[in-house]
Design goal:
single chain; 61% strand; Jelly Rolls; 109 residues; mainly beta; eight-stranded antiparallel β-sheet; 0% helix
């Protein structure tokens, strides 16, 4: 349940809540304060993100777009990507396979 899952601070203005997972897939809610930055990075996972609320400037590879509630984006494995929060909001991230590094089981970022 969303209300029972712990919320952890992962960076300035950014918190994360693991919603559910198994070895093949993971759902994560990411809470962004206005101005918070999801630094450019890459990982070996496929990722789909859904903008639940707020406004984000999202960069995937060489393309940057402004996304609002109801928008989504896909990130291929090993593709550089990041986001800047323009208006406080929430992203729902889906990863495949599971992000073991989010579980404290090694660095996969």
């Amino acid at each position: 349940m969303k209300s029972e899952a712990p919320v952890e601070t992962v960076a300035s203005g950014l918190k994360r809540q693991l919603l559910g997972y198994n070895d093949e897939i993971m759902a994560v809610r990411a809470f962004f304060e206005e101005g918070a930055i999801g630094e450019m990075h890459k990982h070996p996972h496929s990722q789909v993100a859904y903008v639940e609320s707020g406004e984000f400037e999202v960069t995937v590879g060489d393309e940057t777009k402004t996304l609002i509630a109801g928008d989504s984006f896909y990130v291929r494995p090993e593709t550089m990507h990041g986001a800047v929060c323009k208006k406080a909001g929430v992203l729902i991230d889906m990863f495949s396979p599971v992000r073991a590094d989010f579980l404290g089981e090694g660095d996969q970022s």
